[in-house]
Design goal:
Blueprint lengths: L8 E8 L5 E2 L15 E8 L26 E2 L4 H7 L3 E2 L3 E6 L5 H13 L5 E5 L4 H11 L6 E5 L3 H11 L3 E5 L16 H18 L2 E7 L11 H5 L2 E6 L6 E9 L7 E7 L2 E4 L3 H5 L10 E8 L2 E13 L7 E4 L3 H15 L6 E7 L11 H13 L7 E3 L2 E2 L5 E2 L4 H10 L4 E5 L3 H4 L6 E5 L2 H7 L1
Parallel strand pairs: 6-10, 6-11, 7-8, 7-9, 9-10, 17-18, 19-22, 22-23
Antiparallel strand pairs: 1-2, 1-3, 4-5, 11-12, 12-13, 13-14, 15-16, 16-18, 20-21
């Protein structure tokens, strides 16, 4: 039985550009995200086009009757990428990849397509931003591609859907979602309604045909995904590609994953011929660490299930202004002010008249409280101009009373430090039972910040 169509009704709606909240009238403050002046007017078509008849509706199935292969993941041979996804690509999943312009999102996905096509998987790369020759030029720098890699330059969502259903690829890349448009929606490409409609179409294709689809999304100057926040709720996985344009390293971070753990990271190095995975991020992050310098402390953070060693740098100097300056790069600014207040109250240090700068070397951002003790020791080391033993590593959470609290996965942190040749580990006394059985590294348990500073 053929689908029946109904004539659409044109009407104006107001959408929040942050969260996608709908309203029949303009509102000063969004009821959803509480942001001000974010509503824009868009013309939409309300109709019954695409409605299926009762004969075409699907019937429910019992759970026991659903067959599933033991392993439905596709490994890409990019171990860092597979690690972030939880073991590889899941068939029928919708993956959102975000990042700053020019950070390397298209290069990363092009390399993933190349690795997958080498395994006889058909790949369709759809670009709305570059021409076929531009993609070819970038592909020549990466390597040789097989006949299973196909290109298409198109922005009309109807033509894109037809191409996917006709070619039936295993992997599809949409670069980018902000360039796709639907003819029935009068608003410009990249608007709230266009992005939401396009994502909805790709979601139906991914689930209905079992195709893994990557959609590239731009980010705002605040570092969040451009477009409605509902976009992140519709997809299965959200990946952020981070890094400084001047630095060669790039970090792929998973912030949502329905098929694996979240907050996993993959570290890559940008080279002339594309991205190269960094298999030992701890060694890479500590590369170039100064010897015998004050204000430098090595700590360990847990990113997902992986322990990563990072260098915490502090610079405390006399301020010549009425209001001393505080700056935190790679960690939370408010946490820095809190830890300085703890040092002033519990240790009697006079830092109120000094400028204080904290930097997490390597460009990685750490918000885990396990690096609190390392920040405190780095500040004291710079304030007193006394260096800390290079073979020592420090981690622990600091409370407002100056106590050092235990942290999770202490044994994994100590094992990572031992693997990289550290001889001494300063950690919370509450975490000593977990790591006491590790041999070859000297453990020093501390109860308070004062105990840790006495070691300096």
């Amino acid at each position: 039985m053929e689908k029946y169509m109904a004539k659409g009704k044109t009407m104006s709606m107001f959408y929040c550009q942050i969260c996608g909240h709908e309203s029949r009238r303009w509102l000063g403050q969004c009821p959803g995200c509480k942001e001000w002046n974010t509503f824009v007017e868009e013309t939409v078509v309300k109709g019954k086009s695409g409605q299926r008849s009762l004969w075409e509706t699907k019937s429910p199935l019992s759970l026991s009757s659903i067959a599933m292969d033991e392993d439905e993941r596709i490994e890409t041979s990019f171990h860092e990428f597979d690690r972030v996804l939880g073991g590889g690509l899941v068939q029928g999943s919708l993956i959102l990849v975000g990042g700053d312009p020019g950070i390397g999102k298209s290069t990363l996905l092009l390399q993933i397509c190349r690795e997958v096509s080498l395994k006889k998987q058909k790949v369709l790369y759809i670009s709305g931003e570059e021409s076929l020759k531009q993609i070819k030029m970038r592909a020549n720098r990466i390597g040789t591609f097989t006949e299973d890699f196909w290109l298409l330059c198109e922005t009309n969502i109807d033509f894109v859907e037809e191409a996917i259903r006709k070619n039936k690829p295993q992997i599809v890349v949409i670069d980018s979602i902000q360039t796709m448009f639907h003819e029935e929606i009068s608003s410009a490409p990249g608007s709230v309604s266009q992005v939401r409609e396009a994502t909805s179409v790709f979601l139906k294709i991914a689930k209905g045909m079992g195709i893994t689809i990557f959609i590239v999304g731009h980010v705002t100057k605040e570092g969040t995904m451009a477009g409605p926040r509902v976009l992140e709720h519709m997809v299965d996985t959200v990946l952020y590609f981070e890094g400084e344009h001047q630095a060669p390293y790039r970090i792929l971070r998973g912030v949502k994953n329905r098929f694996g753990s979240t907050n996993e990271i993959g570290v890559f190095e940008m080279r002339d011929n594309g991205l190269k995975e960094v298999k030992n991020p701890s060694e890479y992050m500590l590369n170039g660490k100064p010897k015998g310098a004050s204000g430098s402390v090595v700590s360990c953070s847990i990113e997902g299930t992986r322990p990563v060693l990072v260098e915490i740098q502090a610079l405390v100097c006399q301020s010549y202004f009425q209001l001393p300056r505080r700056q935190a790069t790679g960690t939370d600014f408010n946490r820095l002010n809190l830890l300085i207040a703890v040092l002033e109250k519990r240790l009697g240090m006079q830092i109120a008249g000094c400028d204080a700068y904290i930097n997490v070397a390597g460009g990685i951002r750490i918000v885990e409280p396990a690096i609190d003790l390392a920040i405190c020791m780095a500040i004291v080391s710079s304030y007193k101009n006394k260096s800390i033993d290079e073979g020592s590593i420090v981690f622990g959470e600091v409370g407002l009373s100056g106590e050092v609290r235990g942290v999770s996965m202490a044994k994994s942190r100590v094992m990572e430090a031992k693997k990289l040749g550290f001889k001494t580990c300063i950690l919370p006394e509450a975490a000593l039972p977990q790591a006491r059985e590790i041999e070859g590294i000297y453990l020093i348990g501390v109860k308070s910040v004062k105990d840790a500073m006495d070691i300096i």
